[in-house]
Amino acid sequence: LAIEAQLRRALERREFRLEYQPKVNIADGRIVGFEALLRWNNPVLGEVSPVLFVPIAERTGLIIAIGAWVLDETCRQMRSWTASTGAPVKVAVNLSPRQFHQKDLLPSIRDCIDRWNVPAGALELEITETALVSREQEVDVLMRGIRALGVELSIDDFGTGYSSLAYLKRFPVQRLKVDRAFIRDLGQDDDSAAIVHSVISLARNLKLGVVAEGVETEEQLAMLRDMACDEYQGFLFSRAVAADKVLALLEVNK
Ligand code: G
Ligand code: G
Ligand code: MN
Ligand code: NA
């Protein structure tokens, strides 16, 4: 209850910020983009994890306004990085199921990329499987609209939801993100290795990119490289960093 009451005022009090976790190409070790991750610092509660407050925002509908802020702030930041580096910086934004099913998502994405003059192909939206299981026809139309703008789509936390392989064929997504629960157990547990291997093969056969999440050890990275996984994210390379650290990371990456 305390969280919810504080959450209602958090936007107007400017308590949110974004941090950015690099996504790295496994073959050459270069940064290919970032995932924007929402952070909330509240004067009463301190730093609150999105694991706690995103579900509350989702249940109360506050996620619509918060999500709009995340999208706008991401595009503003992309614009500013491009002004500094001269090249587009790719960023992926998480969309919650409720946000995804909200009626004016498509125009709001279009407004945002127009307002900040961001190349649509540099923006990616991460959607969980849970958002895809209902209203399939609507989801299909919406995804095609997003793709028509040039924005990319990925399936987040792949393997944890109500996975139906059918939707991979049906929906126009570019990338799968293998949930970090499977990566965590790589090297410990043969079943996880088999699952990760299968997801990578599946992605390859469907001509989708594949990103491993939560890579923490060199051993995990070596296994993923052997499996020909495209990209990874994780503490091994970097945690999510503040916006002003991104340029420094890109500088090293040159
Ligand atoms: O790194 P982290 O603790 O930030 O993320 C925890 C969870 O919160 C993840 O499932 C992540 O997808 C989610 N999350 C982080 N940022 C956002 C956001 O901007 N919007 C939504 N809907 N979820 C987010
Ligand atoms: O669900 P989503 O993939 O959006 O969640 C991203 C979450 O994963 C964030 O909470 C982020 O901080 C966390 N994360 C990123 N890299 C690692 C990692 O290497 N290990 C662990 N345990 N969590 C990670
Ligand atoms: Mn994500
Ligand atoms: Na994930």
TrEMBL record:
Source species of the chain: Massilia polaris
Residue stretches making up the EAL domain: 1-254
Domain of life: Bacteria
Full-length numbering of the shown residues: 637 to 890 of 893
Name of the protein described by the UniProt record: EAL domain-containing protein
Coiled-coil regions, chain positions: none
